[in-house]
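Entry: Cobalt transporter CbiM
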Amino acid sequence: MHISEGVLSGPVLLSGAALAAVGTAVGLKRIDYDRIMPVAILSAVFFIASLIHVPIGPASGHLILNGLLGVVLGWAAFPSILVALTLQAVLFQFGGLTVLGLNTFTMATPAVLCFYVFRPLLAKNNGSRFAAAFCCGSMSILLSTVLTAGALSLSGDAFVEAAWVLFYSHIPIMIAEGVITAFAYSFLAKVKPEVLTA
């Protein structure tokens, strides 16, 4: 779901960069130094999952796992995703440095929002926890897709059709991410619950 360089208008790029900077600053301020290791590990998971592209019709998709980062890290998802996207831009030319801020914003904001929306259900030790983790994973992708499609649409009418293709091609990924997030959260809650105290 990376937006490439040279596509978006200047105001959209600047707005995304400013919002990503605020989110990253908040995330860095809230990171407990005892939790640096989970942040680094999940940043690496995000980095690797985003490298595997699967053709879906006229577009391609890949796992993002921003819901998993959000459910485990909370606000720390911002710096975690920023580091992974920076490495992808520098090493593999995915996205790019000029769109780094907007790409970070579109992937990290939904993760943090879903963390707070579903946090009360995630704290419960019953069947609702699995469902909440599924919703957190799938809704993060849905919101990321909407934000990315919105950024494309705001950059010109020529990108409106591409925005719709992006949205529809990510519906299977929403389901897959929900399932992965639900099982990963349930597993962590059983074997290492202290990791989930964002």
